[in-house]
Amino acid sequence: MAKTYTCRDVGVDCDWKTSAEDEDGIMAAIQVHAAEVHADIELTPELVDMVRAAIKTA
Ligand SMILES: [Zn+2]
After folding, report:
1. CA–CA distance, 41 with 24 (Å, rounded to integer)
2. pLDDT at 23
3. What residues contact 28, with CB distance under 8 A and at least 6 apart?
4. How far apart are CA 56 and CA 9, in angstroms?
5. SS3 33
6. From the CA of 1, how far away is ligand 1's center (Å)?
7. How far, in Å, is the centroid of ligand 1 from the Cα of 20?
8. 27 CA to centre of ligand 1 in angstroms
9. Which conformational region is residue 11 in: left (phi greater than 0), alpha (psi within -120 to 50 degrees), or beta?
10. Rounded-to-integer distance, Cα 58 and Cα 13, Å
11. How far is the CA of 33 from the centre of ligand 1 (A)?
């Protein structure tokens, strides 16, 4: 089951989206993107929970 995620799903004004084979893979991709593009956004545990909730299984 592929996982998909878009920044807009957590209210970030960004058109980036990604997909991965599993949740670990997509969380890793999201963390790299966040560090590169959203360095001003702190990945708090609350935000990580929002991100996990926003990940869709396609
Ligand atoms: Zn983004």
Report:
1. 20
2. 93
3. 20
4. 10
5. helix
6. 23
7. 16
8. 13
9. left
10. 23
11. 6
| Residue 48 neighbours by CB distance under 10 Å | 14
Tens of pLDDT, residues 15-45: 999 999 999 999 999 999 999 999 999 989 9
- Predicted TM-score of the model (pTM): 0.90
- Residue 47 alpha carbon to ligand 1 centre in Å: 13
pLDDT for 7 beyond 90: yes
Chain centroid, CA 25 distance in Å: 10
CA of 57 to the centre of ligand 1 (A): 19
C-alpha of residue 43 to centroid of ligand 1, in Å: 12
